[in-house]
UniProtKB/TrEMBL annotation:
It catalyses: shikimate + ATP = 3-phosphoshikimate + ADP + H(+). The gene is aroK. Its EC number is 2.7.1.71. The keyword Metal-binding applies. The lineage of its organism: Bacteria, Pseudomonadati, Pseudomonadota, Alphaproteobacteria, Rhodobacterales. This is Shikimate kinase. Its cofactor is Mg(2+). Belongs to the shikimate kinase family.
Length: 170
């Protein structure tokens, strides 16, 4: 069924929560554009996120992220996947609140770790104890993610399709 959306659906949450995978599937089903803010940042800079962090630092990346988010949210309504840190900035929360429905993809630590450990692309996890860093980030961020309009509890056994079905229903 073709849906008409007036606002963006903006997925927020930790790295590894499935924002990109589930968002892509939701957009396909809702017949709306899908945009991944990390991907947009990389394309605009012609650099990977890891390269931006290494060359210009996190503060520079965060400013880029805000600019890119504002541009995406200015476009036609769709499903937007944000980087894990985007919801931590009040300015981004205000931008998202003005134009979209925010959805926190809440996921348990073991599932997150299982997904992100395979890939060494997340600069914030380049520490001596990446699992501990992930746990600390999660503890610090979850109360802020919880202020999103909707909380979606990912189930460890869910396929991407099943999660998209439950999320669209919600
Ligand atoms: C970050 C998450 C990453 C990316 C950057 C910082 C974070 O995005 O934006 O590495 O602060 O949690 P994903 O959540 O898509 O992995």
């Amino acid at each position: 069924m073709k849906q008409r959306m007036r606002r963006h659906i903006v997925l927020v949450g930790m790295m590894g929560a499935g924002k990109t995978a589930i968002g892509t599937e939701m957009a396909r089903r809702l017949h709306v554009p899908f945009t991944d803010s990390d991907h947009e940042i990389e394309t605009a800079a012609a650099m990977t996120i890891a390269e931006i962090f290494a060359r210009d630092g996190e503060a520079f990346f965060r400013d880029r992220e805000t600019r890119v988010l504002a541009r995406i949210l200015d476009g036609p309504p769709g499903v937007v996947s944000t980087g894990g840190g985007a919801w931590m900035r009040a300015e981004n929360r205000a931008l998202i609140g003005a134009r979209g429905l925010s959805v926190w993809l809440n996921c348990d630590l073991d599932t997150l770790w299982h997904r992100v450990r395979q890939r060494s692309t997340r600069p914030l996890l380049k520490t001596a104890d990446p699992r501990g860093t992930l746990a600390a980030l999660m503890a610090q961020r979850n109360p802020v993610y919880a202020t999103a309009d909707l909380t979606f509890d990912a189930r460890p056994g869910d396929t991407i399709e099943a999660a998209a079905t439950r999320l669209i229903a919600a």
